[in-house]
Amino acid sequence: MPLLADRRRLSWNPLITTPPGLYLASLAIILPASLLASDQLVVWMCDVRALRLLNSLALALAVIVIARLQQRLWILNGFRPESAKAAAVAINVVTFPVLFFTSTLYYTDLLSLVAVLLSLDMLKRQAVKSAAVVAAFSLLMRQTNIIWAAFGVGLLVHERLAIALRKKGDKGNKRDMSPWELLWTLWESFRARPKSTVLLLVNCVWPAWPFILLGMCGVGFVLWNGGIVLGDRTAHTAVFHAPQLFYFFAFSALFACPLLLNATLIRQILVHLRSHPLRLTLSAVSAVAVIHLFTYDHPYLLSDNRHYTFYIWRRWFMRHWSLKFVAAPAYVLAALAVAIGVRKQSAVWRMGFLLATIAVTVPNRLLEFRYFLIPYLIWRLHVDRQLQSWPRLALEFFLHVSINCVTLWMFLYRPFEWAHEPGALQRFMW
């Protein structure tokens, strides 16, 4: 393991590219115990099998946080909260195959997700300072969580501004003012009353000062570190890998098919196909152009045959030069299905979510399903309530459990060896 904890020394592997939040959380348990426990117990607590118990505790916490957030989102969207259904959604989320698999190992993904969702939940409750503290903790898990902190606080500031700018007597939804409408209303207000508009802006933005401070600290870290990446930067240089967004849409549509494959949604897609054939055709052609210009492969993707993405890339994308373009229409349909799944969310939420997803996926050269975890699960919690009937939730759970059984079986019972590392077992993983 990269962190070796005992009573004398801490060491850090410089090749690790993520912050040490998970290891610090482990140390918060190990170090106090080391003052009281025997050396033998401390050695056991530092064993990776014992350290993985931290993720087991985080799984229980995740169920509570997710169920609570799901109920709050339903209430904000005008639905009656159902604790049993919210708990079912939470169980489906924690059994999501990529998340569940990594949570059985000593990975940061689970605690990172819990911190991000808890911060978003606190922002929904207007607990801005507490949300900022949790968001800061999430940055110790993954640097790109700063994007989700900005997403959450941006929604809060937009809501405050929309409520403040709405004229009295307007019966519209105060939270559903589009970004363009908000900017136009601000401009008109500034032209008529510049001083009062500036004061209104300050009053609406200032409560978010903890997040502004967090953002300034993030910028300071990037300047001090010379970049956002820790450790081995040569393997994680930023590129404009635009097809990552297409992969995300396909990934989301496939895993959410128990929710999205229904008569209503299929009918809506067919209506779009009939009503906007030119728009969809241009979208598919644009997707082909983007795939041609901005597709990248990564040395890890081409060489590490432990990961399923290796086989997807080798057996599809590299089988023939044309195959990467064949999927373009499917990407467009997947994007349409994902958009329809959250069609009842506000315009600012949809725009903010898309921008945040682009920010956390597109700069990555490496195709890695773990990068899709947080955006997918945030989207999943905002899927329309009508799409989350008990039969669909049961089908989603069955899909997750089935995939988990297969991937865990492959991991445990189908090890293999590399020729250059004889005797060292390698295992299949996400």
UniProtKB/TrEMBL annotation:
Localization per Swiss-Prot or TrEMBL: Endoplasmic reticulum membrane
One Pfam short name: DIE2_ALG10
Signal peptide range: none
Domain of life: Eukaryota
Membrane spanning stretches: 21-38, 50-69, 198-224, 244-266, 278-296, 321-341, 353-373, 393-412
Keyword match Transferase: yes
Main location: endoplasmic reticulum
Reactions this protein catalyses: an alpha-D-Glc-(1->3)-alpha-D-Glc-(1->3)-alpha-D-Man-(1->2)-alpha-D-Man-(1->2)-alpha-D-Man-(1->3)-[alpha-D-Man-(1->2)-alpha-D-Man-(1->3)-[alpha-D-Man-(1->2)-alpha-D-Man-(1->6)]-alpha-D-Man-(1->6)]-beta-D-Man-(1->4)-beta-D-GlcNAc-(1->4)-alpha-D-GlcNAc-diphospho-di-trans,poly-cis-dolichol + a di-trans,poly-cis-dolichyl beta-D-glucosyl phosphate = a alpha-D-Glc-(1->2)-alpha-D-Glc-(1->3)-alpha-D-Glc-(1->3)-alpha-D-Man-(1->2)-alpha-D-Man-(1->2)-alpha-D-Man-(1->3)-[alpha-D-Man-(1->2)-alpha-D-Man-(1->3)-[alpha-D-Man-(1->2)-alpha-D-Man-(1->6)]-alpha-D-Man-(1->6)]-beta-D-Man-(1->4)-beta-D-GlcNAc-(1->4)-alpha-D-GlcNAc-diphospho-di-trans,poly-cis-dolichol + a di-trans,poly-cis-dolichyl phosphate + H(+)
Pathway per the UniProt entry: Protein modification; protein glycosylation
Family indicated by similarity: Belongs to the ALG10 glucosyltransferase family.
UniProt function note: Dol-P-Glc:Glc(2)Man(9)GlcNAc(2)-PP-Dol alpha-1,2-glucosyltransferase that operates in the biosynthetic pathway of dolichol-linked oligosaccharides, the glycan precursors employed in protein asparagine (N)-glycosylation. The assembly of dolichol-linked oligosaccharides begins on the cytosolic side of the endoplasmic reticulum membrane and finishes in its lumen. The sequential addition of sugars to dolichol pyrophosphate produces dolichol-linked oligosaccharides containing fourteen sugars, including two GlcNAcs, nine mannoses and three glucoses.
Protein name, UniProt field: Dol-P-Glc:Glc(2)Man(9)GlcNAc(2)-PP-Dol alpha-1,2-glucosyltransferase
Annotated organism of origin: Plectus sambesii
